[in-house]
Amino acid sequence: MKTELATAQISQYWKDGFIVIDDFLSEEELNTWRDALSAALDKRGSKKLPDRKTVGTLDDDESYYETVFTQRLNLWIDNPRMKELILDPRIGKMATELSDLDAIRCWHDQALIKPEWGNPTAWHLDVPFWSFHHKHAISIWVALDDATMQNGCLYFMPGSHLKTTYENPGITNDPNSIFDHYPEYRDVMPTAAPMKAGSCSFHNGLTIHSAGPNMTPYQRRAMTCGFMPDGATFNGIQNILSDEQFKALKIGDELNTEEQNPIVYSKG
Ligand SMILES: O=C(O)CCC(=O)C(=O)O
Ligand SMILES: [Fe+2]
User: Fold this and answer.
1) What is the CA radius of gyration of the chain?
2) pLDDT tens-place string over residues 185-195
């Protein structure tokens, strides 16, 4: 695993709000990740979360989203093998270095399988959906198949993390509806981020991003994880929290339980 970050990569992340790391996983590691994901997905069946069928935020039209991607969250919770891979402290260290933090927790991991002939992933920001607001929320996205401009690679609006807010423009069935909220981006050329299988990207939770449609008869698999800076507090949004967890939290409470948001890396 290529875990060393050059200063230039860190400054590029601060400037653009994302970076791509080519050949992040070795061939052998890629096979391990593919096998672990396949086993985790088989075990999970049709539930999005370990204990639930759905997540509130992305389900306004199930039938449209079923063809955007199959989404399975928090595989680390019911899958020790996946936990070892995606909550690897070396990945956590990279996330803390990129964000200049002391310690980082897992918000949620997420397998995103864009099926053959799948719809595009709408332009969106991540952190406005989450139960904390922080300008240093960061996600890793690991390509487990070649992600190309033909099968739905990621696209980013460079520098948008410096201009966006925590207000949630939402996701509708129009993949471009974010431009009603951020009209200044309607005329901006995004950066495509094609990646070979085993490469990865990191993006800031406030960076505007999307993925193209899958215009191929093969699926596009990715394993991702959203990281939350240690010390982040509850903002009143339920997102992936269970009704029980949601009811027990007050705005301002620290999200710091090991069962739900384990520390992935800490400098100290
Ligand atoms: O894989 C995709 O289609 C979208 C990924 C994404 O939005 C994310 O990882 O935050
Ligand atoms: Fe996203």
Assistant:
1) 17
2) 999 999 999 99
**15 domain-assigned:** yes
* C-alpha to C-alpha distance for 185 and 195, rounded to whole angstroms: 24
Structural domain includes residue 122:
yes
pLDDT of 60 > 80? The answer is no
| Lowest-pLDDT range of 56-65, 107-116, 244-253 | 56-65
- CA-closest residue to ligand 1 atom 6: 210
Give me the CATH number covering residue 74.
2.60.120.620
Closest CA to 156 of 15, 22, 13, 16: 16
Identify the residue whose C-alpha is closest to ligand 1 atom 1.
Answer: 112
Confidence of residue 59 (pLDDT cuts 50, 70, 90): very low
Of 224, 225, 240, the residue with max ligand 1 atoms within 8 A of its CB, to mutate for a pocket test, comes to 224
- pLDDT attached to residue 64: 72
Handedness of CA 81, 35, 41, 107 (dihedral sign): positive
Quick one: which ligand is closest to 71's CA?
A: 1
Query: Within a domain: residue 260?
Result: no
Our answer on whether the CB atom of 214 is closer than 6 Å to any ligand 1 atom is no
Q: Is 148 in the pocket of ligand 1 (CB under 6 A)?
A: no
